[in-house]
Amino acid sequence: MLGQFDFNVIERSWVYLFREGMTFTLTLTALAMTGGIIFGTLLAMLRLSSIKPLAWVAGVYVNLMRSIPLVLVIFWFYFLVPYIGAYIIGSSQPIKVGAFYSSVITFTLFEAAYYCEIMRAGIQSVSRGQVSAGYALGLDYWQVMGKVILPQAFRNMIPILLTQTIVLFQDTSLVYVLSITDFLGAASKVAQRDGRLVEMYLFAALVYFVICFGGSLLVKQLQKKVAIVR
Amino acid sequence: MNYNWNWRIFFEASPDGRGTYLDTLINGLGFTLATALSAWVMALLIGSILGVLRTTPNKWLVRFGNAYVELFRNIPLLVQMFLWFFVLPEFLPKALGTAMKQMTPPWASLVPAVLCLGFFTAARVAEQVRAGIQALPRGQGMAGTALGLTTPQTYRYVLLPMAFRVILPPLTSEFMNIIKNSSVALTIGLVELTAAARSIQEFSFQVFEAFTAATIVYIVINVIVVLGMRLLEKRVQIPGFVGPSMNTGGH
């Protein structure tokens, strides 16, 4: 009960939690967001491509990723990446991939499916006439996309992309299943070492809440700022 | 790739002595569905009530609904799972807390998992229900009042029947989410589908067969849910009424 609540364990461990755990969580979030948005945008362009097989492949990829749980995807890649790596460099043995790189690859590829759907909506939110105008000016596909469509699509979608990033930030806690020391993993280690589960898990929940709630308030502010009046 | 595929693994006896590995998988599927369905009933009930509260004129009810949604949306599901499993029994009256900790498996992890997923998804359902009610033309509520209906009657006979039709597509994806999210319960020891695949992998070392099987099962569930909901949507649709589209992102 609260009477026996031991604040001391938090005082003793918070430096460790943030220096080891939160650094990992934030690094993973940042890398997966960057990779996920880039790959997701490419996927969105493929899905909207007029070349049917390309659109089909991208569609299958996105729907597959979206219909299986992240935990299963984490396990898949944890075991699959060493084999793919071995295949790429032509090694006969599965190569060793650290838990960090494995999770960066997993989250990038998984979140790309979600970012893809956002970017697809973003690209479709730009009127068709702009594409035609671009082609009429003699731009090629990449120029139309890079200079006309994508800048507007990004601008329209920034709030949703950031909201998805907050979801990604929360999702990174699932690397716990690979026994990685992310923020929750660190809290869990201290909790089990000191037998202070209640304090550590409540503290972890509080920290996640403050960051995510603060983040979503900022996104709301931003949404008002970037909204284009039409 | 240097990997020995062995699809017959599913017909070999599993070391838990309860049949083949295929039985392990089916058992896992059973727990995934049981967890997800019971949590879904909870989420739909609590979420609908909260969603309605957030559209009432009473600002304290609205604040309570908003606070609930923000609280449950901004804490990772895994952390919530730990709170229900490790932390809640400590805050309950001693007898109840001890009873919760001493439940026999699978109840010890099934009950916290259902509670966790139920309350977590309720926040997301509440968000959809609120959006669904607010997306209706304002005149609908007024028409209810003009007909002499009380506020509860207006909700029961006018607003909610329309709102639930509007939000059927987003509710479908929330239902899929709750099935997928039930896999997080493996961290508190529930042997659902993903955990079953993982245990097959640990005992037999046939990693990719186990995960492929689980993946296929998830895809099949997905297809069944989507097709089922499409049928339901067709059955309940009102001719001429086109609902606004909503996309709130996340998973």
Topology of this structure?
The complex is a heterodimer of chains A (230) and B (251).
Chain A: H1 7-47, H2 52-67, H3 70-89, H4 99-125, H5 128-136, H6 141-171, H7 183-194, H8 197-226
Helix pairs in contact in A: 1-2, 1-4, 1-6, 1-7, 2-4, 3-4, 4-6, 5-6, 6-8, 7-8
Chain B: H1 21-53, H2 59-73, H3 77-91, H4 94-101, H5 107-135, H6 138-146, H7 151-166, H8 168-181, H9 193-204, H10 207-236
Average pLDDT, all residues of chain B: 88
The beta-strand count of chain B equals: 0
**Chain oligomer state:** heterodimer
Category from helices, strands and their pairing of chain A: mainly alpha
Assign an overall shape of chain A: flat
Biggest interface found: A-B, 46 and 43 residues
Beta strands of chain A, count: 0
Structural class of chain B: mainly alpha
Secondary-structure arrangement, i.e. CATH architecture of the domain at 20-179 in chain A? Orthogonal Bundle
As a percent range, the share of strand residues of chain A is under 5%
Strand content of chain B: under 5%
Mean pLDDT value of chain A: 91
CATH class membership of chain B: Mainly Alpha
The amount of helix of chain B comes to: over 70%
Largest sheet of chain A: none
The radius of gyration computed from the alpha-carbon positions of chain A, rounded to a whole number of angstroms, is: 21 Å
Shape summary of chain B? globular
Main CATH class of the domain at 20-179 in chain A: Mainly Alpha
> Fraction of residues of chain A in helices?
over 70%
Second CATH tier, the architecture of chain B: Orthogonal Bundle
